[in-house]
Write a structure and sequence with these properties.
single chain; alpha+beta; Glutaredoxin; about 40% helix
Length: about 260
């Protein structure tokens, strides 16, 4: 009877822990991963040189895709700086091994602002490689189609936007193969992601863990650590181990009790 009670408690704690993990893709702000799906390659945008281009004309090799808006007071500048930083540290060559596309999801942004914003971040990159980082602006229907195709969910908040911070790796055919979260990235991580994109092999990422540990704060426009949630999970995990210990100990004691003939 005691073993049954302990086993029931173990199952309850396990269900409680894993029941907290996000499972619904219906989010207003964040990322809904669409690994293995294709982005629409025929969408038209305007680059920082004021030329009209299609997404398909830009993607001829593995591509790092990011979404920003140019007057963002929070995540966008650190994200772009993080991209420039990892490009400067990786042994891969921008324009040969991969390209970068940054798209503004604010319809008020212009090619002139795109050109100005780009100049703030390409200084870390070799001059010969800077042309392979393209900044795009566009009209709302095309912006909505491209963001929805990759699961990038953002929301206007007054004059600003609440939005996630991530880069999306695409294959030369426009297939989504990896999501990398945050504003800083490891050279090894980017190299692996580019190699996967070249092979067209989607790889899962840590989106659920990231969403579980961090929450977006629209007021500060940053991600904040969910301390209470993590502390609760830690307590549940410790309780799990304790109940498991009691269950195993009880089983061992029962096996040592001599049976009466």
């Amino acid at each position: 009877m005691k073993n049954i009670v302990l086993l029931g408690l173990l199952i309850f704690l396990t269900g409680n822990l894993f029941g907290q993990l996000p499972v619904s893709p219906q989010v207003e702000i964040g990322i809904v991963e669409k690994l293995g799906q294709m982005i629409p390659m025929d969408l038209k945008f305007i680059n920082e040189k004021s030329d009209t281009v299609t997404i398909g004309s830009l993607i001829t090799r593995p591509t790092v895709l990011s979404f920003v808006y140019f007057d963002c007071p929070g995540l966008c500048s650190p994200l772009q700086d993080g991209i420039a930083d990892v490009v400067s540290k990786t042994e891969m060559v921008l324009g040969k091994d991969y390209d970068i596309i940054t798209i503004s999801f604010n319809t008020k942004d212009t090619p002139e602002k795109a050109r100005e914003k780009k100049l703030n971040f390409v200084t870390k990159i070799k001059e010969s490689q800077r042309g392979s980082w393209t900044y795009l602006t566009g009209e709302l229907p095309n912006i909505q189609k491209i963001t929805e195709s990759v699961g990038f969910r953002y929301k206007p908040t007054g004059v600003d936007f609440a939005h996630p911070s991530t880069i999306i790796i695409l294959s030369p055919q426009g297939k989504i193969t990896r999501y990398l979260y945050g504003v800083t990235f490891l050279p090894f991580e980017l190299k692996m992601a580019v190699g996967e994109a070249l092979r067209g092999t989607p790889q899962p990422s840590s989106n659920k863990l990231f969403d579980y540990c961090f929450a977006y704060d629209p007021q500060s426009k940053t991600y904040t650590l969910q301390f209470t949630r993590l502390l609760g999970s830690f307590v549940i995990i410790m309780a799990l181990f304790f109940v498991l210990y009691l269950f195993v100990s009880s089983r061992k004691k029962s096996s040592k009790v001599p049976k009466n003939d």
